[in-house]
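Consider the tokenized backbone below.
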């Protein structure tokens, strides 16, 4: 797997790159936000995961994460000394797939890298036997992870697509918040609840269908299939 390591400390980067190489990763080292974004042109350049340090010399790491998420669905793991819950939530809201606090155990980091890379293609989509889901004017192409409304492609982040695909497979069925968080984010961490709300709001806005995803107060969400 190709991995993009965004780290301004050359000594830290060299040590980590050596460990990752021993475990079969091909590492590209970017020392700044600008270098990282350049490496991700066009469309991720085949990277399986981005390890993103937040303390960069030219840009705030959160800002870099937001820019990465706008141009590619490549999984992003934030690596930082900022351990407070607010920082974690902020990073996840910006589209990070995981958040590792320094100092960390190398084995745990490797496990998290493999975990987010496995989640790149949802298991449901891979094994459903269906190539596309149709919901009125909305078309969800599972193999290509592309969504269109009335034939016009709508750019979604990886998590937005995963969330929409999950709800769309059983229109009208109420998914509990805990279930959605477990299946889309693969975690039971309570702080992810706010991230779920943000992603639902973003989907409603991008698809220009506020009524498509209905909030079931105190329970969760369900997709209301549009009438043709």
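A designed sequence for it:
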């Amino acid at each position: 797997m190709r991995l993009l390591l965004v780290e301004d400390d050359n000594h830290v980067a060299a040590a980590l790159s050596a460990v990752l190489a021993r475990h079969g990763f091909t590492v590209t080292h970017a020392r700044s936000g600008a270098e990282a974004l350049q490496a991700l042109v066009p469309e991720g350049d085949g990277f399986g995961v981005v390890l993103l340090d937040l303390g960069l010399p030219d840009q705030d790491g959160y800002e870099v994460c937001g820019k990465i998420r706008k141009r590619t669905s490549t999984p992003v793991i934030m690596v930082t000394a900022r351990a407070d819950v607010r920082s974690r939530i902020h990073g996840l809201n910006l589209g990070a797939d995981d958040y590792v606090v320094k100092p960390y155990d190398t084995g745990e980091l490797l496990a998290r890298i493999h975990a987010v890379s496995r989640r790149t293609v949802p298991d449901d989509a891979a094994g459903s036997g269906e190539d596309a889901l149709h919901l009125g004017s909305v078309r969800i192409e599972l193999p290509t992870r592309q969504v269109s409304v009335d034939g016009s492609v709508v750019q979604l982040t990886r998590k937005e697509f995963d969330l929409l695909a999950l709800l769309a497979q059983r229109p009208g069925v109420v998914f509990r918040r805990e279930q959605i968080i477990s299946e889309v984010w693969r975690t039971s961490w309570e702080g992810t609840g706010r991230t779920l709300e943000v992603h639902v709001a973003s989907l409603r806005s991008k698809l220009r269908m506020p009524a498509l995803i209905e909030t079931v107060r105190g329970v969760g969400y369900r997709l209301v299939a549009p009438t043709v």
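The first strand starts at residue 2 and ends at 6.
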